[in-house]
Input
Amino acid sequence: MKIICLLSVVFFSGVVYSMDKDSLSAKIIGLERAALERWNNGDPSGFLEISAKDVVYFDPFLEKRIDGLDSLTKYYAPARGAIHVDRYEMINPKVQAVENMAVLTFNLISYTGENVHRWNCTEVYRIEADGSWKIIQTHWSLTKPNLK
Amino acid sequence: MKIICLLSVVFFSGVVYSMDKDSLSAKIIGLERAALERWNNGDPSGFLEISAKDVVYFDPFLEKRIDGLDSLTKYYAPARGAIHVDRYEMINPKVQAVENMAVLTFNLISYTGENVHRWNCTEVYRIEADGSWKIIQTHWSLTKPNLK
Output
């Protein structure tokens, strides 16, 4: 009976134990790159489609944290069609994961014409009831902002 | 036999299922406040003691992410005895958790004499083998930095 119970545990804890660490990292980084590449071409829906209902969000232009996908969708609306990034470098992406949550951190450099922007980014992904990974927390900040 | 197996699952998934959501939020916020209050009195060890070996870290003064507790300990060394914050407000702290990982986000206002500093903060806590919660990711950024 002990063996059957242990099998049940493995079954219950499910998806991630059957995915090794490198595969999970590659999956999470792939989700992020795909959303980022849509963003860089003026399409915020890449991020919105992989964000959970309870997503929370920080960036340097906000007075305070945004709570929830509806609020984030409204906030992103003016970005649609207004953003163009020529190319980007995702520097040293790292994924720290448990069974059903994964933290992705990286530095980012975005190039548009002569402009270069440097970012720090933290994304937290959670596995949802349907087995998909969704972002529950996004934090964008400027790397060494040039302060007055 | 089914009942016994289910009980095993609950036992295996352990600590957090037996702690309700509000208790976990209070615990995580309490850990953060305690570390922050030591920081505000010039003692970075409050954060270092609750950070995991594999902690990653962003703040606005760094060229890139810091990886690992040893590097963070060196980085914090000059802060010891050099920081004093009169009082702070932790605004709207929110905890999003699964069994063994919890994301804490908040806005912070720090007051020192006439100076007021506004921050965005994301902390990710993970439950360790000994049952303690440790920070594996810290992201501090300035709220609406005053850019040149």
Notes: The beta strands of chain B are 51-58, 66-67, 87-98, 101-112, 115-127, 133-142.
